[in-house]
Amino acid sequence: MQQLENSLRRLRTDYVDLYWLHNFEPTTPVEETLRTLDDLVAAGKIHYVGFSDVPAWRTAEAATVAEFRGWAPVVGLQLEYSPLERSSEGELIPLARAKGMGVLPWSPLKSGFLPAKYSSARTGPVDTTRTALVGAPSESDYVVIDALNDIAGEVGASPDAVALNRVAHRPGITSTLVGARRLAQLEANLEAFSVTLTDAQRARLDAVSAPALDFPAENNRTLAPMLAFAGATVDGRRTVVSTLLQATPTRYWHAPPARPERAPC
């Protein structure tokens, strides 16, 4: 509460529209945190509550507790998301979509890895202040970077704009945070609004940047629908019949032996 009051004084305002709870703090009971935030909403100091960089399991717990208690809900999630960091598609983004939360990605250019300054064919030092903090792209990163550069050349836009455009149009994304130190960087970011990608280009970029998600994400995407719906179309999504269900019936069920006929008395 003291930190919020100090922020309001520095900002010269009476309230904050969206108050982000930054980072995961495992020691304080979630009920205590949520009750404090609800008190601040009731007092008019903040209008809405968002979580930033909090694990999906704790975010789901908080959302459930707030709903049960009638406290201010969690309306948005802030998380790292870019063509080079899509692992939040496993838990956090599906949680947000299921609970009606907005998703606001940070670092959509992966700490400056995605602008045209990087390429597998380009060597030498790169003009970025983040190199000392985040290192350099990996081999797998360059596969995505090169595909992004190729698509940018096809549509006549900067790689920055293509990357931001793809992030903004991914399922569940509400808005995107951008950062720029120079006017040219800001202009490159704003160019994302005018970029149009074909279905083939989007599919190509999605394929090379597909993340490895924690279990059971892949199981739920492929095997579970086959077993649950067995070829039916549910919510517009067509499924196929699992080979496990296509096995001969005798593998799972055996007819009882016929009763011998009894001789008449």
TrEMBL record:
SUPFAM superfamilies: NAD(P)-linked oxidoreductase. GO terms for molecular function: oxidoreductase activity. Residues 1-209 form the NADP-dependent oxidoreductase domain. The keyword Cytoplasm does not apply. Gene3D superfamilies: NADP-dependent oxidoreductase domain. Keywords: Oxidoreductase. It comes from the Bacteria. The keyword Nucleotidyltransferase does not apply. Pfam families: Aldo_ket_red. GO terms for cellular component: cytosol. PANTHER family: NAD(P)-LINKED OXIDOREDUCTASE SUPERFAMILY PROTEIN, NADH-SPECIFIC METHYLGLYOXAL REDUCTASE-RELATED. This is NADP-dependent oxidoreductase domain-containing protein.
